């Protein structure tokens, strides 16, 4: 319930222009939007479970949450559409999130990077599992392992392809 309150408080803080941008994403894709919202709630819940101290700041838990978030969006959307359409929507949704709720440049780089790691991870797993049979557990262990080897992002020039990143 606390996670839903956080989301609604964030939505309440949006300007009219930002609400229009959000509607441009959600109205043409109502099922994807519902799936994305559910993925948001699940990723918050699971990140809170595994990383109670760092999921809501810029630590390892945040890296886990962002990458899991994109995997879950992809998984849910792939159950009703093609992986390519799910990937396109996921990228639009997660990029828009960073635009609607801006952070400092290094935090934004971290979030966008971890989002991309999650999308790439899903696409790597896709050939081995029929998209209808994906489950949340497929991602949690792998992303927990990636979190153990996450790198500290110190500058906008840092490039840790395929690795989760966080700030100290």
From TrEMBL:
This is DUF6973 domain-containing protein. It comes from the Bacteria. Residues 24-150 form the DUF6973 domain. InterPro entries: DUF6973 (IPR054246).
């Amino acid at each position: 319930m606390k996670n839903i309150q956080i989301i609604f408080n964030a939505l309440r803080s949006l300007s009219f222009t930002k609400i229009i941008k959000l509607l441009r994403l959600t109205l043409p894709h109502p099922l994807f939007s519902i799936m994305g919202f559910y993925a948001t709630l699940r990723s918050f819940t699971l990140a809170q479970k595994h990383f109670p101290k760092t999921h809501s700041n810029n630590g390892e838990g945040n890296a886990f949450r962002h990458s899991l978030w994109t995997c879950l969006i992809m998984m849910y959307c792939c159950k009703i559409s093609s992986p390519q359409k799910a990937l396109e929507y996921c990228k639009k949704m997660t990029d828009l999130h960073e635009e609607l709720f801006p952070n400092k440049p290094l935090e934004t780089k971290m979030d966008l990077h971890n989002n991309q790691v999650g999308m790439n991870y899903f696409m790597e797993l896709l050939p081995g599992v029929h998209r209808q049979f994906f489950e949340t557990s497929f991602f949690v262990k792998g992303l927990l392992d990636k979190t153990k080897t996450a790198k500290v992002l110190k500058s906008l020039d840092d490039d840790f392809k395929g690795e989760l990143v966080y700030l100290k």
